[in-house]
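Loading example: each entry is read as two labelled lines plus one structure line.
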Amino acid sequence: MQKQHYNELSRIFLRLSRFDHLNAIASWDMSTMMPANGSQARGEALAELSVLRHQILSDKKMARLIDAAAQENLDDVERANLEEINRQYQNAILLPDSLVEEQSLVGSRCEHGWRTQRPANDWQGFSTNLKEVVRVSREEAQFRSQAQGLSPYDALLDKYEPGITSNKLDGLFGSLRDWLPGLLQRVIDKQAAETVIIPEGPFATEKQRQLGLDVMGVLGFDFAGGRLDVSAHPFCGGVPEDVRITTRYNQDELFTALFGVIHETGHARYEQNLPRPWLGQPVALARSMAIHESQSLFFEMQLGRSAAFQQLLLPKIISHFGQQPAFELSNLVKLSQRVERGLIRVDADEISYPAHVVLRYEIERALISGDIDVDDIPALWDEKMQEWLGLSTAGDYRNGCMQDIHWTDGSFGYFPSYTLGAMYAAQLFAAARRALPELDTQIAEGDLEPLFTWLKQNIWQHGSRFSTSQLISNATGEDLNPLYFRKHLESRYL
Amino acid sequence: MQKQHYNELSRIFLRLSRFDHLNAIASWDMSTMMPANGSQARGEALAELSVLRHQILSDKKMARLIDAAAQENLDDVERANLEEINRQYQNAILLPDSLVEEQSLVGSRCEHGWRTQRPANDWQGFSTNLKEVVRVSREEAQFRSQAQGLSPYDALLDKYEPGITSNKLDGLFGSLRDWLPGLLQRVIDKQAAETVIIPEGPFATEKQRQLGLDVMGVLGFDFAGGRLDVSAHPFCGGVPEDVRITTRYNQDELFTALFGVIHETGHARYEQNLPRPWLGQPVALARSMAIHESQSLFFEMQLGRSAAFQQLLLPKIISHFGQQPAFELSNLVKLSQRVERGLIRVDADEISYPAHVVLRYEIERALISGDIDVDDIPALWDEKMQEWLGLSTAGDYRNGCMQDIHWTDGSFGYFPSYTLGAMYAAQLFAAARRALPELDTQIAEGDLEPLFTWLKQNIWQHGSRFSTSQLISNATGEDLNPLYFRKHLESRYL
């Protein structure tokens, strides 16, 4: 039986993936290489590309092709691909071209401004741009809401985590509110009685970079298909064939950049190991934002901050920075597992991290529903920081509501992925541990291949072939179960 | 009177310029940042973009729009823009989509291979790819030849230098053959009697980079709208709002990278000063390849290697590398004006440089016409190097016919621009000197603004508003006159 309609769709999406490649590289460049005055032209070029993408996806022949392809004799992978194709198509036709172009323009203006406004603590300047972003994001949410029969905010959530709703999140995050603040306090009290030696700097940027490259090598990063660079906000970008991760360095302190690199390497290995034969098709893409984050947190939190991994790390740190009293195994373990209430999400330990996420989730949900406006954000931020972590951000925008890049380009609905990812990561690591009884010994000895093979077989190689729920059930024997996350924290920190 | 057809064309070309922006950045990235295994996907993405560009340009409504716009009431700039629009359109419709895509694919494969094949002196591997490039370039030349009534090679020349033919080049280059080898010998004999102190290295890459940035600053490069990076083959890329120049460093030697940077800064300032109000339209583009090269050679040869400029350069070199006997004014002048027969075009002095160009011109012309094949290149190269410079490249492909990037992506017809550029540069500098009687003093004192203002007023700000011939006549009072180049060489070197 012929598959001509499916094949035509497949050619269209291959073409789109090539335009996405250019978008990925030009966006990476914008955050790592581009000089300040290149911003406007770059924003316009990316906006033009996003209009083109939208035009191709919303061509009127698409619906007919998708319907016809669904009648063809497709194998399992092709059928999963068709489902992803349909999801992209449905997402695209919801929005008029003019809105897509406007989103890209106001987003890149806001993001670019943020690069200088954040260090200047310039909330006034930033909020002017952010209001525009919120305005077009609300418009987007309205369009999606009407088409999908979801609330406006749930319709944005669905872009990043198909199947997740604020109802489900309230359940998952509500239970956090029950046990997490108490655990946090107990761990802080426990750690207050311990002695920790803080490493003495300065730690030269170039040496930190070399250490990062070294650890990326241990973690299996393929340097013939990727790079490490510097950006204001660390990210993993590029394309599966050429994955670009970034970090940022602080000469006074060693671990932020190091664990940042380990985190992004988790994202990178997922991308580098997506199913090669299907590359260019939607089914070859990473399953979802939360699954992506589960891989980075698997690397950073489950693996990277484990006591076993510190054994592997210690001689590398010494080889780059020389010996000093802080560089001793039990101290290194304490440093990697130090819990502290702080203002900055990306620097947060894994216990307080969910507090940062729930705060953002509640604010962005209210922002999109129209319950609050941009001008209300700083006061609400301060209030929720006090409530969860007992810290104030009054007047300190740069370390408060201006610290993240996400809202600048309108990625509302993304933040919950971080905590979903942490939950998936804990569940996956527990499953890997069951499958690999010698895991801790292997990690300490640097024999990481068995663990990476497990991830490759259970997560990476599947792309978007299965739904998130199927993928996790296949890998771990059950659907998302937040108990693993709680058990992980309690067993590591108590 | 309405200009609706012109305005519609103008919108189409603005859109194209945004795709060209992405092409420029992704191409820059490919030469400076991309890891080896990113090559195939990048090649495919760029090929897709070039097909898109070609499809937009060759849309069947274009001819009608251009005809209708020609009847509208356009001002001078709009009319010049329409002419450039028409030239791009005519160039585009000549070639079928499949050929455009094939060119991009075989070109990026050949260029990518060259990056490792050249250092490995692997002519066998390289020539396999080059044959494919020559095959599709001959096809292109055939299509152009039939449409334009030019010989196949002249039709390729016309892409880079509208109005130039091999007939005219034979005249210009033929006269070089009469006087240049004799001048070269006299200068070499004269310089043999002089004592020159060679600077003692090593010269650390990072210090060379800092010196380059320093000199770029003196030359007015706008760092808020551009960057300096490293690539195997130096070039000036990016877009007018974000100009990317590159160089390459050799720790044993200081001047190649330094004068390379000065050269590329000439290209860069032309780009950075193209007429802002017209950006996005073809009339805002640089006039031609030879005019572009005239700006880089104006910076490198006319200005950069002048005795006056060495006064400006000397303290900067000393501040980056410390004092040593070679760093003394008269010695620095000798070093900058040293003439030597050598194998490498980009390292050649300005007297022997045209020999490298004429050699390539004769070979590529024969290659396109079919008089010779790729396998004939090494022997011909060796023969002509012996004839012009008395040097052999037998077996030394990497320093012979594999030294340049140009042919790898099928840029046949480009090389003559270099020597045309040298001739334009000499003529322009002579005109600037007439307009600025204190020029040498100004240069020595670092007061370069008057010279740059002259260039801006006479060349940069005009984009493609005038034909090359008009532009040069307006700036210098006469059309291209190769006597200025000869006079320049004789007065500097004899």
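Residues 4-32 of chain B form the longest helix (29 residues).
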